[in-house]
Specification:
The protein is of the alpha/beta class and about 775 residues long. It contains 18 helices and 38 strands. The chain has 4 domains: about 100 residues, Alpha-Beta Plaits; about 375 residues, Rossmann fold; about 130 residues, Glucose Oxidase, domain 1 (3-Layer(bba) Sandwich); about 100 residues, Sandwich (Immunoglobulin-like). The N and C termini lie far apart (about 55 Å). One of its GO terms (biological process) is proteolysis.
C-alpha cells in the first residue's frame, strides 16, 4: 500500500512541476506574415500590446511589453509568455506561428586570388565594372571599426537611398562609421530565459552587448571577407603574408550585431533582418543557423522567415549551411529562397612537421608559433601510457580533462587520438599543457585538413597513415623522441579545392525536392580581419596582437558568396536575387587545380549533396548566358506544395494569392524554377518523372543553345526540346527534363544538363533518389 501511495505522490508531484513549468514566462516570437507598406509602425505596436493585454492576467501587467517589434517588411513581436499564453496566441486571427526564442549558433587573402585563378579569366578588366553602390548587410557578432579592412580611402559618397543609422555605445561612436562601414546597429541582451551561460568576453573588457563593437571576432572576420578594403602586407604573425581584400572591396558594409560569444537570439536575428530590409541593403550575409538536429519548419525558423521577406523586397540572402558534416541530412538554412553555402579548402596549407628521433619528418597540419628547432628533441609517449591513476586508457588516449598523470607527461611530447569527438582540439591542447607536456601530436583523420591555432604551444595534427608510423616508431624504439616544428605556410597545395570535412551535407532535412547546399566556397584556413586579442596564449612571444586571424567554417564560406553576389549585382543592378544565384550556380566549377573532379575530404569524388553546383567562380558568373529566375510566386507555390494552408500562404504573400489545390503535392516542388534539380523519390517501376524549367536569355540577342546530358549508369535522361532559340535579350524559353531508371542502383544518382551556345555553358546539376 505504501508503495502505491508513493507512486501516486510521485505522479502528483510531477504533474504540479509540469504545470508550474508551463506557467513560467519565457521569450516567444509571434510571427504574423507580411506587412502593408503604408501601415503605421506605432499603430502596429499598439495592436500587438492590445493582443498581449487580452491574454496576460491583469496582475502581471508588467509583462505587457514588446522585447522586439517587427514592422518594416514583416509583422510580429517578441514577448514574455507562458506556454499556455503562447498556445492561446497561436490560435489568434492573423498569427501564423508562435515559437520559443532560441539561441542560434555561429557557424565558425589568398582565397579570392585562388578563386580568380581557378576561373581562368583575366580579372582586372572585368573588375573595373564594379560599382560602389552595393550595400552588404552582415548579421553577426559586431565589427571592429578600427581595422584597416574597413578604411574608406578613395570611396565616394554614401548612396542617397541609405536609411540606416550608426548606433552609439560606450565604446562605439558615430565617427566609427565611415563611407565603407555606413551603418551599425546592435540588439539588447536576450531575455534570461534563453541566455547562454557563455556570454562573457575577454577582449579589452568589452561586454557582449551594449554597442555594435565586436567582442568575439566572428563578425569582423566575415565582414572583411565579404567586402574588406585592400590591405597591403597583411598576415598572421608572419604566416599567409600578402594582400588582404574582400570579394567586393568597392561595396559598403552595414553591421547588425545580433550575436555574442554564446550565440544569437532568434528574436534579435529576425529584428536585424527586418531592419536591414528597411535600411536599404542589397545583400544580407548570415553565418549562423540552427542545429541540424533540431531543425524547425519554415515558419518557425527566424532566418527562413526574415529571408523570405528580404527576397520579396529584392534582397538576396546568403547563409552558411552549417558545420555538422560529413553526415547526410545535416545542411541547415535550406529554404529555397536562401542561397546556402558549403565550405571548401584553398591551395594553401599550414604545415607543422614532426621530426622523429630516427630522422623521419612527417608533415602535420597546425598553426603553432613554437620556437623549437630540429636540434631539439623530447621523449615521445602515447597518451594511454600517461594515464592518471584509476583513469581508463581510452580517456587518456583522447586527452580527456584530468586523464593525464603530470609525472608521466611532464617534459614529453604526448600523442593523443580523436576516437571521442566530444573532446575538442582546444580542450586536448589545454589538457596536455596542464600536464606540463612539451607538445601534443593529435592523430585525427577527419579534421587533419582544418588547421587548429594553438598559439605558442607546440601542436601538430596528422592523419591515420602518419599516425600509424608514429605509433610504430614508439612501439619499436627503446627511447622514442621527437620535436614539433613551428608552422610554415605552403602555397600551390594540390588538390584544391576539397570539400571540408565539417561542411554540412544534403539532402535538406525539410525537403529533399530542393537540392541543398547550393554552392561551395573557401572556408578552411581563411585569413581576414579580426579583433586584437589579449589572450596571452594566442600571441607569439614578443609580438603585438594581430589585426588578422585565420578561421575555418561555413561561416567563412558564406561571406565569400555574399561578396561574389555583390560583385555580380554591381555589374548587373537590374538582376533579381534569384538571377544572381542562378548565375553563380550554373557557372560554378566542378574540377580542382589538378583538372580532376572535385573530391571530399576522404579523397572520394564529391557529390552535389556535398558541394551543391560546385565551387563559386565570380568572374564566370558575370556572363552566364542564361539564368533561372525564381519569383516570389514560385516560392508561394512551394509553400502550398509543401503543405501550408491557403490562409497561411496568403498572409505571407501580403495579397490575395491562392494555392492551386487543397492537397499538398511534394512531387511538384521538383518543378520549382530552380537552377538545380532534385527528385526525392523515383521508383524504378514508375513510368518516369518529368520536371520543367524556364530560362531567361541575358546574353547576346540572337543565340541558339543546345542541350547535352551527363547521366549516371542506369539512368535515361531526356531533354525536350533539345534546342532553344532566342531572338532578343530577356526572352524566356521553357523545356522539360524526363528521368527514367533501369537497372540503376538504389540511392542517389548525380548528373547534369548543360545548355551551350558555343560561348556560354549553363550547367544544371541534378540529384535523383532511386527507391
Amino acid at each position: 500500500m505504501a508503495n502505491h501511495l508513493q507512486f501516486v505522490f510521485f505522479i502528483l508531484a510531477s504533474f504540479v512541476l509540469c504545470v508550474k513549468s508551463n506557467q513560467v514566462p519565457e521569450s516567444y516570437v509571434v510571427y504574423m506574415g507580411s506587412i502593408k507598406e503604408e501601415t503605421n509602425p506605432e499603430a502596429i505596436q499598439a495592436d500587438h500590446l492590445q493582443m498581449l493585454s487580452s491574454i496576460i492576467p491583469s496582475e502581471e501587467k508588467e509583462r505587457v511589453s514588446l522585447i522586439q517589434s517587427y514592422h518594416h517588411a514583416l509583422q510580429g513581436f517578441t514577448a514574455m509568455l507562458t506556454e499556455k499564453e503562447a498556445t492561446l496566441l497561436s490560435g489568434h486571427d492573423g498569427v501564423l506561428s508562435v515559437f520559443r526564442d532560441r539561441i542560434l549558433q555561429l557557424h565558425t587573402t589568398r582565397s579570392w586570388d585562388f578563386l580568380e585563378k581557378e576561373s581562368g579569366l583575366r580579372s582586372e578588366r572585368l573588375k573595373q565594372r564594379a560599382s560602389s553602390d552595393i550595400i552588404i548587410g552582415i548579421v553577426d557578432t559586431g565589427i571592429w571599426p578600427e581595422s584597416p579592412s574597413f578604411s574608406d580611402a578613395g570611396m565616394g559618397k554614401i548612396p542617397s537611398r541609405w536609411k540606416g543609422i550608426c548606433m552609439e555605445g560606450s565604446d562605439f561612436k558615430k565617427s566609427n562609421c565611415n563611407r565603407k562601414l555606413i551603418g551599425a546597429r546592435f540588439y539588447n541582451n536576450p531575455p534570461d530565459s534563453i541566455q547562454s551561460p557563455s556570454n562573457s568576453s575577454h577582449i579589452y573588457g568589452i561586454t557582449s552587448f551594449g554597442s555594435p563593437r565586436d567582442s568575439v571576432g566572428h563578425g569582423t572576420h566575415t565582414s572583411s571577407t565579404a567586402a574588406g578594403s585592400t590591405v597591403m602586407n597583411a598576415g598572421y604573425y608572419g604566416l599567409a603574408q600578402g594582400v588582404a581584400k574582400g570579394g567586393s572591396p568597392s561595396s559598403r558594409l552595414a553591421m547588425y550585431k545580433a550575436c555574442s560569444l554564446g550565440g544569437c537570439a532568434s528574436s534579435a536575428v529576425l529584428k536585424a533582418i527586418d531592419d536591414a530590409i528597411y535600411d536599404g541593403v542589397d545583400i544580407i550575409s548570415i553565418s549562423i543557423g540552427m542545429s541540424s538536429a533540431f531543425q524547425s519548419d519554415f515558419l518557425s525558423d527566424p532566418i527562413a522567415i526574415g529571408a523570405f521577406h528580404a527576397n520579396k523586397r529584392g534582397i538576396l540572402v546568403v547563409c552558411s549551411g552549417g558545420n555538422d558534416g560529413p553526415d547526410p541530412f545535416t545542411v541547415v538554412n535550406s529554404a529555397p529562397w536562401i542561397l546556402t553555402v558549403a565550405a571548401s579548402s584553398i591551395d594553401r596549407s599550414f604545415q607543422s612537421s614532426i621530426v622523429l628521433g630516427n630522422g623521419i619528418a612527417l608533415k602535420g597540419s597546425a598553426i603553432n608559433f613554437s620556437n623549437l628547432s630540429r636540434s631539439e628533441s623530447f621523449p615521445l609517449i602515447f597518451g594511454g601510457d600517461a594515464a592518471a591513476e584509476s583513469t581508463p586508457v581510452s580517456e587518456a588516449s583522447n586527452c580527456y580533462p584530468g586523464s593525464l598523470d603530470t609525472e608521466k607527461a611532464a617534459g614529453k611530447i604526448i600523442i593523443c587520438v580523436d576516437s571521442d569527438p566530444t573532446v575538442t582540439r582546444r580542450v586536448k591542447k589545454l589538457v596536455a599543457e596542464g600536464a606540463q607536456a612539451e607538445g601534443l601530436v593529435l592523430i585525427d583523420e577527419a579534421e587533419k585538413g582544418v588547421p587548429f591555432d594553438s598559439g605558442s604551444y607546440p601542436f601538430s595534427q596528422v592523419g591515420n597513415d602518419a599516425g600509424v608510423q608514429i605509433l610504430k616508431y614508439i612501439n619499436y624504439t627503446k627511447k622514442p623522441t621527437a620535436v614539433i616544428l613551428p608552422t610554415e605556410d605552403v602555397e600551390g597545395f594540390k588538390p584544391a579545392p576539397v570539400v571540408a570535412y565539417f561542411s554540412a551535407r544534403g539532402p535538406g532535412g525539410l525537403t529533399e525536392a530542393i537540392l541543398k547546399p547550393d554552392l561551395m566556397a573557401p572556408g578552411v584556413g581563411i585569413v581576414a580581419a579580426s579583433i586584437p586579442t589579449v589572450d596571452i596564449g594566442d600571441i607569439p612571444a614578443g609580438k603585438k596582437p594581430s589585426n588578422f586571424a585565420i578561421k575555418s567554417g561555413t561561416s567563412m564560406a558564406c561571406p565569400h558568396v555574399a561578396g561574389a553576389a555583390a560583385f555580380i549585382k554591381s555589374a548587373h543592378p537590374r538582376w533579381s536575387p534569384s538571377m544572381i544565384r542562378s548565375a553563380l550556380m550554373t557557372t560554378a566549377t566542378t574540377t580542382n587545380n589538378l583538372g580532376k573532379p572535385l573530391t571530399a575530404h576522404s579523397g572520394a569524388n564529391a557529390s552535389y549533396l556535398d558541394m551543391g553546383a560546385g565551387e563559386v567562380s565570380p568572374l564566370r558568373a558575370l556572363s552566364p548566358g542564361l539564368v533561372f529566375e525564381t519569383t516570389t510566386e514560385d516560392y508561394l507555390y512551394f509553400l502550398c506544395y509543401y503543405g501550408y494552408k491557403d490562409q497561411v500562404v496568403r498572409s505571407l504573400s501580403g495579397n490575395n494569392f491562392s494555392c492551386p489545390g487543397n492537397q499538398p503535392s511534394p512531387d511538384l516542388i521538383s518543378s520549382l524554377n530552380y537552377p538545380s534539380i532534385s527528385i526525392a523519390r523515383l521508383d524504378s517501376k514508375q513510368a518516369g518523372r518529368t520536371v520543367s524549367r524556364t530560362v531567361t536569355n541575358v546574353g547576346p540577342a540572337n543565340s541558339t543553345y543546345f542541350a547535352t546530358v551527363d547521366a549516371p549508369s542506369g539512368f535515361m535522361v531526356k531533354v525536350s526540346p533539345e534546342k532553344l532559340v532566342f531572338t532578343r535579350r530577356w526572352m524566356k524559353a521553357s523545356y522539360e527534363v524526363t528521368f527514367h531508371v533501369k537497372d540503376a542502383t538504389k540511392g542517389y544518382g548525380f548528373g547534369s544538363v548543360t545548355w551551350s551556345d558555343g560561348a556560354h555553358s549553363v550547367r544544371t546539376v541534378f540529384a535523383v533518389h532511386v527507391v
